[in-house]
Every structure is written in structure tokens, then in C-alpha cells.
Automatic annotation (TrEMBL), chains A, B:
Record CDD domains: HTH_LacI, PBP1_LacI-like
Source taxon at top rank: Bacteria
Keyword set includes Transcription regulation: yes
PANTHER family assigned to the protein according to its UniProt record, in alphabetical order: HTH-TYPE TRANSCRIPTIONAL REGULATOR GALS, LACI-RELATED TRANSCRIPTIONAL REPRESSOR
Residues annotated as domain HTH lacI-type: 8-62
Signal peptide residues on this chain, from the entry's feature table: none
Assigned keywords, A-Z: DNA-binding, Transcription, Transcription regulation
Protein name from the UniProt record: Putative LacI-family transcriptional regulator
GO molecular function, one term: DNA-binding transcription factor activity
Pfam families xrefs: LacI, Peripla_BP_3
Keyword rRNA-binding: no
Organism in which the protein naturally occurs: Actinoplanes missouriensis (strain ATCC 14538 / DSM 43046 / CBS 188.64 / JCM 3121 / NBRC 102363 / NCIMB 12654 / NRRL B-3342 / UNCC 431)
DNA sequence: TTGTATGCGTTATCAC
DNA sequence: GTGATAACGCATACAA
């Protein structure tokens, strides 16, 4: 602290070094233009005073910050971390900071974060929203803040997005199960207003019909959320079904549900995959690390993040930017949880 | 965008509403002092122009930002999320933003984040550092930025910290195993320059000695990191031990290691806990959700975060602040992974 | 109740 | 090569 209780400024450095404020600025921004002697004197003064550039002042002057932001949907789901890692990588390359916020699925918290970020004048906002069609999102896109939706799609297409073909994801998951000989399969996921849940279910239903299987044998087990706890409770409901209705396999809308279901199955003495095969979605690291390694539909998580960052930066810097909806193709990763099917 | 391609400012609003800049500012900060008629006129102008306060300008003027920051050690470990949630709760209560950064265990990335945060003039920095004694941390504390170390302790005590009694944690974990009849136990953890690892091992050794068990029968299985993958590899080494040396139980320095070890054990056909009992540390949600629910040493994760935020806010606002090292007491949560021990 | 003036720290433009 | 000065957007002390 110098003078007034604030941190030392260029002014203080200038005084200490016996030069003008402009010269200090030159040392900072165009060192080549200042003589070695004075430069060193200024640098010494900066070191002695512990001078640190004030980013708000730079930002005020520059009119824009040097930061991106990502508003995560669920910090407790490792999937979003991996996405964030991808974003961070790209941000680092562009020499930008990344502010990571977490809405935890709460629309009000999301809105609060967004307000703050716009006030901060971040260069761009990446978000996996609780509701892709929420009005506060449309506002932001219209205001002109570069904006990319991550792992979601909105009805209005006036912004960039990166996502995965969820219908296809549902298809390959269930096709895998049909291949394995399953004729009665549960779909575990919800709430159904989540686009992903609907689309993964749709994909599941499509293949199911294409293989000529009766619609009744694809059983819907809705959940309140996409969490381990909800997966466990779905397991209980599944176990409670009359045995002639009980599925031999389950396709879960994400890996957390699958892990919960797996846990309940093991606890209940079911053998996985013999009594119950399980497919998850996302392929988070914990999926491979489960006691019975989980078959899952992989999304390119880091790639999703990197691409999203690329798009938002393009929108921020390229005057000829056009919005783009990048779609990735999911892939099945087969592991033990669907490995061996007892055909009876 | 108005005028110069920048977002509309108070000045623009003033012009549009036909009042002075000071009046606009009054509407923003002291609405009571301005007449209803002009206030409404100003508010209408703000709405029409899409005016949004510029946080950098406010911050520059105020001399300090309205944000805290938490630099996480490992975004892939849910433990740190829960800590972050606790911090966020407290930040919300104080009406502050929270910037969450992730060093991913890399000292260079940590330093970069810290640089940026200091430049941003955040009100306080919370951090779980890669190395508690790194010089860049001491610098920050000395510069006067409110600073709290989370879940770590440094040798120099010139700052606040919140942590858990790790020696005690090690003690209760191993005491539990001894209670269960185990006479040969592995300690899985590393690298040993992590204070936590050393202390948890120390606690383990203390009880081991107090029960008069031979030191050789507490086997150290060092790991390169605290990850699921490393836990799996520790499992392989454990399985490779000659059977008369092979432990009947393992105490892992965190839950990720424990989950990896558990997975390997199950894959290798070992029954848990009959052939191998496992105790983890942290009690992350995935511990309870494992196929064999994991006994673990619980840390009060959210509480840790809340307390850290409380301390940093006290340092930021209270002139009589004195540094405090808050220590929490860990507790054993017994689950199936140590549930049944076959005594032979 | 409203308007005017000043300064926060930085950068850039222009003289010298 | 260096110094003086203005501007970014906002908040406030003070004047009208």
C-alpha cells in the first residue's frame, strides 16, 4: 500500500523512479522505446513498491476484459469438468482467463451469474443452461455478447452451439443391447423436459421399432434428476416390477444414473451383466472405474469444450462470424457391464 | 452499442433521458433521492438503450472488486467441488462473486491464476495449493491480499487456514481396521511430499504401534498421484505380493485411490471385504455410491469451504483480524467395504 | 431535487 | 527518449 491505502499505481512508480507516468507506461507496454538506463530504474522502482497492474483500469481503458466464462450446469458431474478443461485449454492458448461458474441446475443462480458476467464485460459466455429456451439467454445473445451453448440446443438458432447427436447416441446404446440378445430393456432418465433425455429416448425407440420389437418391452423408468441417488431409486422400482415384465438390461440417460443403478443392482444381489446389463451415457472416468466397468456412450468432452471456445472467440474477434451449430458423433464404449449376457 | 461501438454508459443514458449524468448515477445508487418522474424517465431510457453497469469502472472507482476466488487443486476430484460449494454459499450470502479456478496440480498454472487474480484485485483468495510452501503463496500473503489456505497447512503460519486433523484421520481409519481383526494392512498413498499423505500415514503408524503390532505388517504402497488409475495400479502391486505378506485390508489416502483399488480387487476376483477390506478418505459422494459402498474418513467438505470464506471475509473487512488456523475433526463412516471380516 | 466537477489507474496521442 | 494530457465509465462531494 502506498499513499492513500491503495496499492501502488503507475503514478507512484513514476514518482519513485523520478520519471513521468508516460514513461512507466512505456516500460510496461513498449519496453523497446525506452532507454536501458531509465527502463532499469523504473523496473527497480516497480519491484520495490510491489507494483501490480490494475486489471480493472486496463479493462476500462480497453473497453473489454480479457476473460471468457463458462457457466456449468452441474459441478458434481465430472462430465462438465472435462468440458471445462477443454475450454480452459483453448482459453490459455488465447491468453485469456476463464471464469468457471456453477449454476447447479438452478435457473435463478444461472441468471445471477450471467448478470455478473455481462457486467464484467467478459469477452464471451459459454453455458450449459438449465433451460435452453429461458428468456435471459436470448437477451444475452441479442445484446451482442458472444455466446455459445454447450451440450444443449435451443429452439431459436441465433447463436452458436456445440452438442452431440443424442438421438444417435440413444440408437447405438440400444442397438448394442439388442445385439446382446436383450428383448426387454428399461430406459432410465428424466425429467423429460431435458432435451437430451427426450432425444436419447427417441433414438432408443427408433431402433427398437426398427428391429420389430414390441413398444411395451421398452420400459420407461423416469427419474427426477440425473444423479446417482436417482439411479439407485430407479433400481428399486426396477426390482419391484413383476418378473415377467422385468427388463434384462437398462439404458441410462447418463453415467451417474447408471452408477446408481449398478450399485443398487449389486446390493440387491443381481449379477451385472448376467441378471442386468447396463449402458450409461457420457463415459465419465468413473464409468470405467466402476466395480463393474460401465459400458457407456462416449461424448468427446474436451473436444466439446475446445470447439465451444473456438466458436466464442471467433464471434468475439471475427467481424464475418456466422453462427454455427457444431454436432459431434457419439461412440459406444463397450465394457463389462454389458459383456456377458446369459441367454435363457 | 451506442456512439463509439461501446456499450451504452451512464452518459448515454443521461443524454437520452435529458438529465445530467449525476442524476442517472443517483437513480442507480440512491433512488430515494430522485423524484419519481425523472426516475421513471431515466429508467425508461436505461431499458431502451439496454444499459448495463460496467463493473470495471465501478471497481476502479471503488478500489476493490466484489469477488472472491478459489483456486482448486484438482477439478476431477469431487471433494474439491463440495468445498467450492461451501465457499460459494458464503460468497452468495455476502453478495460477492466467486471465481473458481483449477490448477490441476500444476504449480505453473496455479501461479498464473494467482497472478491474474491479484491483477483483478479480488477481495480475497482461497486456495488449495500444489505446494503449501511455494514462494508465490508467501508473496501474496505478504502483499496483503486476504488469503486462506484450504485443506492444507504451510510451515509459515502468517495466514489463515482451514484443514482437518489428518493424523487423527489416519488413526481412526486404521483403528477401525484393527478392530475388525486385521493384522496386516496396506497404506496406499503418495507422493509423500504431500503433507496429507505423510500425516495420514503417521496416524496409521501411531495406532499400529500402540496396539503393539509389528511395523513390518503395515505395508506402504506408494502412489504417484491420488487418482483412480493409481489406485488400480496399487491394486496390482498388492496382488503381486507373496501371499504370506499380502494384507487383508488397505487404507487409502483418498477415495479416488480407494475406488481404483476396489475396482482392481473386484476385477481380480477378490471379495470385498472378505478377501480385502478397504478404507478411503474424504467420503465423496461416489464413495457411498460404489458397488461395494466404501468405508471412508469423512471431512466436513462444505463446512471447510464455508469457514474458509468466513475467514477470508473477516480478513478483508475486519481491521482487527487475526490469523486463525481452523482445524476440523474427521469422522469414520463405516460401510460395506469393511463390513464383514472373515477371521481365519 | 438536480447539475457540475473531480478522480480512480491505465493507455495512447501528441508535443518537446 | 521523455513528459504532459485526455479519455475510458462510474460514484460522490458539493454547488445551485
Amino acid at each position: 500500500m502506498t499513499r492513500n491505502g491503495r496499492a501502488p499505481s503507475v503514478k507512484d512508480v513514476a514518482a519513485a523512479a523520478g520519471v513521468s507516468l508516460g514513461t512507466v507506461s512505456n516500460v510496461l507496454n513498449r519496453p523497446a522505446v525506452v532507454s536501458t538506463a531509465t527502463r532499469e530504474r523504473v523496473e527497480r522502482a516497480m519491484a520495490e513498491l510491489g507494483f501490480i497492474r490494475n486489471e480493472s483500469a486496463r479493462q476500462l481503458r480497453a473497453g473489454t476484459s480479457r476473460a471468457l466464462a463458462y457457466v456449468m450446469l452441474d459441478g458434481g458431474n465430472p462430465f462438465f469438468h472435462d468440458v471445462a478443461e477443454g475450454i480452459e485449454t483453448a482459453a490459455e492458448d488465447a491468453d485469456l482467463s476463464l471464469f468457471v461458474c456453477n449454476s447447479n441446475g438452478r435457473g435463478d443462480r444461472e441468471a445471477k451469474h450471467l448478470d455478473r458476467l455481462v457486467q464484467q464485460r467478459v469477452q464471451g459466455i459459454l453455458i450449459t443452461p438449465a433451460d435452453p429456451d429461458a428468456p435471459h439467454l436470448a437477451e444475452i445473445a441479442q445484446r451482442g455478447t458472444p455466446f455459445v451453448m454447450v451440450d444443449r440446443l435451443s429452439r431459436a438458432g441465433d447463436h452458436c452451439s456445440v452438442s452431440v447427436d443424442d438421438v444417435l447416441g440413444g440408437r447405438i446404446a440400444v442397438e448394442h443391447l439388442i445385439d446382446r440378445g436383450h428383448q426387454r430393456v428399461a430406459f432410465v432418465g428424466g425429467p423429460s423436459h431435458i432435451g437430451q433425455v427426450r432425444e436419447r429416448l427417441q433414438g432408443a425407440r427408433e431402433v427398437w421399432a426398427e428391429f420389430g420389437l414390441p413398444a411395451d418391452d421398452l420400459i420407461n423408468l423416469p427419474t427426477e434428476a440425473m444423479t446417482v441417488t436417482e439411479g439407485r431409486s430407479a433400481g428399486e422400482r426396477l426390482a419391484g416390477l413383476p418378473s415377467r415384465r422385468r427388463p434384462t438390461a437398462a439404458f441410462c440417460a447418463n453415467d451417474l444414473l447408471a452408477l446408481g443403478l449398478l450399485q443398487h443392482a449389486v446390493t440387491a444381489g443381481l449379477r451385472v451383466p448376467d441378471d442386468l446389463a447396463i449402458v450409461g451415457f457420457d463415459d465419465i472416468d468413473f464409468a470405467a472405474a466402476a466395480a463393474v466397468p460401465l459400458t457407456s456412450v462416449r461424448q468427446p468432452r474436451q473436444e466439446l469444450g475446445r470447439t465451444a471456445a473456438r466458436l466464442v472467440l471467433d464471434e468475439a474477434t471475427n467481424p464475418d462470424h456466422v453462427h454455427e451449430q457444431a454436432t459431434f458423433v457419439p461412440a459406444l464404449v463397450a465394457r463389462a457391464s454389458t459383456g456377458l449376457v446369459r441367454r435363457s
